């Protein structure tokens, strides 16, 4: 494994480099959701997957620390954005209903 630090909206990686990309609790801080998802799509190989785990909007709305600096998305907003960027979407809400695990597939 090799770790790198990069901006999610412009990673600098070549097209189709990765089979899988995974992130936890980062989408809230992306300046542009569509641009970030398009970048994930660009760097994935055909058949690749972007796995994203994050708290639900309802959960975030109840946390005082998320009142500023967090972009909060509903499941529908995330699904629509990922489809606009070329992904097919599989999602699952955690057993407690507080988080999503979303799998975005390229070319599936």
CA-based gyration radius: 14 Å
Structural class: alpha+beta
In the CATH scheme, the class would be Alpha Beta
CATH superfamily, please?
A: Vaccinia Virus protein VP39
Structure notes:
The chain is an alpha+beta fold. It has a four-stranded mixed sheet. The model has no long low-confidence stretch (mean pLDDT 92). It has a single domain, classed as Rossmann fold (3-Layer(aba) Sandwich), CATH 3.40.50.150. It is built from three helices and four strands; from the N terminus they run βαβααββ. The two termini are 25 Å apart.
In short:
With 108 residues, the chain is α+β, with helices and mostly antiparallel strands. It is 24% helix and 31% strand.
Please describe the structure with a list of short key phrases separated by commas or semicolons.
108 residues, four-stranded mixed beta sheet, Rossmann fold, alpha+beta, 3 helices, single chain
